[in-house]
Model the fold of this input.
Amino acid sequence: MKAAYKVITIKSAEETMREAKQVMEAVMRGEEVAPRPAEYSFSSFEAFRKAMTPQRFNLLRTIREKHPESIQELARITGRDMKNVSEDLRALVDMELVELEPHGRSKTPRLKYDGIRLEVAV
Done:
């Protein structure tokens, strides 16, 4: 089975707008536009570093290796406070890296991808 990767880009707002404009112009000309893989973008490397903290990266690794059945179990495994783990998971869900599957009265954190591909515009 082929590995699935989430593309995270770091590019300026101007670059993002330029790309969107190119796609819209192609569509208006009646050209077929190939679908692009889903990506999540940051406007700077600093913004990426702020969002992808070492603690959040550790949660991704722990979910992959330990397969916790609940957020509470993930907090226990990592030795972190449940509130902080929940906040970090919410950020990872927002970046579409993790999903929370209902499991009885709790939620089971699951990775949505096998890895992350970071693309930086220069």
Q: What stands out?
A: The chain has one domain: 5-120. The two ends are 33 Å apart (CA to CA). The longest helix spans residues 13-28. The chain has a mean pLDDT of 91.
